[in-house]
Design brief:
The structure is a single chain. The protein has ten helices and no strands. The chain is mainly α. The chain folds into two domains: 1-47, Homeodomain-like (Arc Repressor Mutant, subunit A, Orthogonal Bundle); 57-217, Tetracycline Repressor, domain 2. The chain is elongated and about 60 Å long.
Length: 218
C-alpha cells in the first residue's frame, strides 16, 4: 500500500475502534493489529495516539471546509434544518470525539487550539447565516448582533450535545430523533420566526428526512 493508503487505513480503523470502545481502551498496538500492520509501521506514520486523534479531528474540519461555508447563500428555515441534521450526522460519524471532547481537549494543547480556531470560524459563519436570515425576513432579529451571537451560542450547545443526551437514553439515531433535537432549536427561535409555525415544522421535517436518507444511501 502507498503511504496515503496506509494512513487512511489506520485512521479508518482507529475511528471505528474509538467509536466502539473509547480512546482510553484502544491502544496503538490494537489499532496496528486490526490494520494487519506492525506497531513500528503504525508509528512510522503516527508517533502516538494523540497524533491519530488530531488527524481524525482534521477530517472533521475538512468536511466542514468542503461545503459548510456557503450556508449564508441559502437563507431559509428549510436549509437551517438541513444544517442541523448535517451536524448531528457528522457528530454520529465521529461520536467518540464529541463524547470525550472535554478530556481530549484538556489533555492536548495543540488539539485545543485547533478546536478553538475551527469553532471561532464556525461561529462567525453561523452568525453570518442568521444575520442573512434576518435580512431576508425569515427571522426577526432587527439587526441585533448581540442577540444573534446569543442565539448561535445556544443552538451550538444543543447541536453539539443532542446526540450524547439521546444516546444515553438508549435511543436510535433516525429521522424522529434528529427532529426531536431540532424542536429544541425551534423552541428557542420561536419568538423570532416570521411565518406559520406549522408550515415551518413541516418544512423542517422534510429537510431533515432528506439529509438523513441521503447520508444513509451514500
Amino acid at each position: 500500500m502507498t503511504t496515503r493508503q496506509t494512513q487512511t487505513r489506520i485512521l479508518d480503523t482507529a475511528l471505528r475502534l474509538f467509536n466502539e470502545h473509547g480512546t482510553a481502551a484502544v491502544s496503538t498496538n490494537r489499532i496496528a493489529e486490526e490494520c494487519g500492520i506492525s506497531k513500528g509501521n503504525l508509528h512510522y506514520h503516527f508517533k502516538n495516539k494523540n497524533e491519530i486523534i488530531e488527524s481524525i479531528f482534521g477530517r472533521i474540519v475538512d468536511e466542514m471546509n468542503a461545503g459548510w461555508y456557503q450556508d449564508h447563500t441559502q437563507p431559509t428555515i428549510r436549509h437551517m434544518a438541513e444544517m442541523f441534521a448535517r451536524q448531528v450526522l457528522l457528530i454520529y460519524e465521529y461520536r467518540f470525539f464529541y463524547r470525550e471532547m472535554p478530556s481530549l481537549l484538556r489533555d492536548n494543547d495543540s488539539l485545543m487550539q485547533r478546536y478553538r480556531d475551527n469553532r471561532q470560524r464556525r461561529m462567525a459563519a453561523l452568525e453570518e447565516f442568521f444575520a442573512v436570515l434576518d435580512r431576508a425576513g425569515a427571522l426577526r432579529f432587527d439587526g441585533d448582533s448581540r442577540l444573534i451571537k446569543s442565539i448561535v451560542h445556544s443552538t451550538w450547545i444543543i447541536s453539539d450535545n443532542w446526540l450524547n443526551s439521546h444516546e444515553f437514553l438508549g435511543r436510535p439515531l433516525d429521522d424522529q430523533s434528529v427532529l426531536a433535537g431540532y424542536h429544541l432549536i425551534l423552541d428557542i427561535l420561536g419568538p423570532y420566526f416570521v411565518g406559520d409555525q406549522i408550515h415551518i415544522l413541516d418544512e423542517s421535517r422534510a429537510a431533515i428526512g432528506r439529509v438523513i436518507h441521503a447520508r444513509m444511501e451514500a
